[in-house]
Amino acid sequence: MYRTLIILAFFVGLSTFAQDRMDLKLAVDRFEYSIATWDDIYPPLNLPRVGSRGGDWGRISIRFELGDGRADRRDDVWIDELNVTWDIVLARGPEVRDRPRPNTSIRLSRQVKYVNVLTSGGGTTHWAIIFIPPEIIKRFGDDLPDERILGKATFMHGRRHIATVWFTGKTSTVQDNPPSREFQQYVMSEDPIPVKYGLFHRLETPWSYSGSGNDEMMRILPAGVE
Questions:
Q1: Cα(129)–Cα(21) distance, rounded to whole angstroms?
Q2: S-S: 88 plus which of 27, 108, 205, 221, CB 3.0-4.6 Å?
Q3: pTM greater than 0.85
């Protein structure tokens, strides 16, 4: 038994060592902010549209290529996990620190962990998608124009930083070509009021198993599973 454990620990350590030697590169291919409606769900859900059901969701999508610069272009390379941390600001007029109001800028944050992610020397295309639920849109962002959605998505492999993608509701830039310092400082400042439960990953939405608009093929690690 002890011999088996030693062999297993050896291979786990070898896998960790190999992943630490990777030269992961991320290139954004497409960025999109869109409104996802109940009618977009396919197959349709036979549920009554009560409460938040049937409401419009905000959907932020980043399509990117993830590659290992040290691998052969034809080789498949797997990584144990890819963490994406979202920091999104809904910019709604002057900031008020004491209490949130409809014209107050707010901050939404969430980390999503993907596991057993495929990459390659030539780059593999993936999507990272996050949703803003109907309640947040109704509570703070009715008729919210695209350009008032600001934020960044930080991609990490373990503790190693891969890339930071800055975005507004219409455009995005990677860390190598970041937006103005004022933009970055505002997104990361304490001015926007943090609001809990403002971002949901795909498995927590009606699109968890929908074939319509479901381009995110990486496996999400559910909350509470390690």
A1: 28
A2: 108
A3: no
CA distances to 23, 29, 30, 31, 58 from 36, rounded to whole Å, are 35, 21, 17, 15, 6
Host H or E run for residue 36:
strand 24-36
Complete DSSP assignment for 191-213: -SEE-TT--B-GGGSTTTT-SSS
Q: Which residue has the higher pLDDT, 118 or 190?
A: 118
pLDDT tens-place string over residues 41-82: 765 666 555 444 557 888 999 999 998 877 666 677 889 999
Q: Which residues contact 76 (CB under 8 A, 6 or more apart)?
A: 118, 119, 120
Q: Is the pLDDT of residue 186 over 80?
A: no
So what's the pLDDT on residue 6? 44
Q: Which amino acid is at 113?
A: K
- Classify 143 as helix, strand or coil: coil
Helix (H) or strand (E) holding 81: strand 76-90
116-152: b (≥16 Cβ within 10 Å) or e: ebebbbebbebbbbbbbbbebbeebbeebeeebbbbb
